[in-house]
Amino acid sequence: MILIRDFYNVQERHRPSVVTIGNFDGVHAGHIQLLTLLKKQAHALGVKATAMTFEPHPHEYFSPQNAPPRLLRWRDKIEKLAEAGVDQIFSLRFNQALAQTSAEDFVKKYLVDGLGVRHVVIGDDFRFGRKRAGDVHLLSELGERWGFSISTVDTYLIGSERVNSTRIREALRRDNFDLAEELLGYRYVIQGRVAHGDKRGRTIGFPTANIVMPHDNVPVWGVYAVRIHLDDKGSYSGVANIGIRPTVGGERVLLEAHLFDFAEEIYGSRIRVEFMAKIRPERRFESFEALKEQIARDSTAAQQWFEGQRG
């Protein structure tokens, strides 16, 4: 898989291509329908299948305070798109210049001149360009002018409702991880590299693997029963807190995962934390001793949840 970071890195070897365009937050089941058709069309034309996406998400650029939480960090999204089997990912920086680019100029610069587009695969509600003025009809007209064709993919439904990132966030907000898994096509997961923390957990018998979240706006918050996957050491049940740790004066959003029956040092390792069930919301305790007692109860509750699943 080839990753093209921004327009100035586009080279002749990246052309020609069949292109699909989107934010691809979550790379969910609906996106997979789009990417499947993308690969089919690219194979038929004998060119590269290219997924074009943006960083940051346009919502984060225009209204950072009101942007919805990301389902995947940028790196994780790139990994998911690669797993889906595309040949190239074109990650375009979303900035003021791009935001002000008209729909026609966007197609000419990035698709025609940049990627040498032969065919475009898009969703039936696709909008693009300044003020989202471009649509399927305009794209079809531009295709006739510049020599590319288009295919549209109908809205993908599960349970008579559309599969999209908003619906997945709502499922996670309601702690419906089974529905979120059905919509995503995989269990909701946060992954990252284990960082050093304040090591309070090990003093009370609950050492944690910590992932510092690059964004404070996350779709899950509180204490959860989790499944932790280590690249070379297998998988473990556990309990995790994601939040700011108000009892100990935390400020940054941190994911702290305690692995049951595991005592090895894994600093610097990449881990994947799958969210299985909500234990409780995050809250502030009057003392560290009270927090310690609650952590023990949380651990027991998570273990009991896993035992119930096995039963």
What is the element layout, followed by pairings?
Elements: E1 2-5, E2 17-21, H1 29-45, E3 48-55, H2 58-62, H3 74-83, E4 88-93, H4 96-99, H5 103-114, E5 117-123, H6 136-146, E6 149-153, E7 157-158, E8 161-162, H7 165-173, H8 177-184, E9 189-193, H9 200-203, E10 209-212, E11 222-230, E12 234-243, E13 254-259, E14 270-280, H10 288-310
Parallel strand pairs: 1-4, 2-3, 2-5, 3-4, 5-6
Antiparallel strand pairs: 7-8, 9-14, 10-13, 11-12, 11-14, 12-13
Helix pairs in contact: 5-6, 7-8
Structure described in brief:
The chain has 311 residues and is α/β, with parallel strands linked by helices. It has helices at residues 29-45, 58-62, 74-83, 96-99, 103-114, 136-146, 165-173, 177-184, 200-203, 288-310; strands at residues 2-5, 17-21, 48-55, 88-93, 117-123, 149-153, 157-158, 161-162, 189-193, 209-212, 222-230, 234-243, 254-259, 270-280. It is elongated, with a radius of gyration of 22 Å.
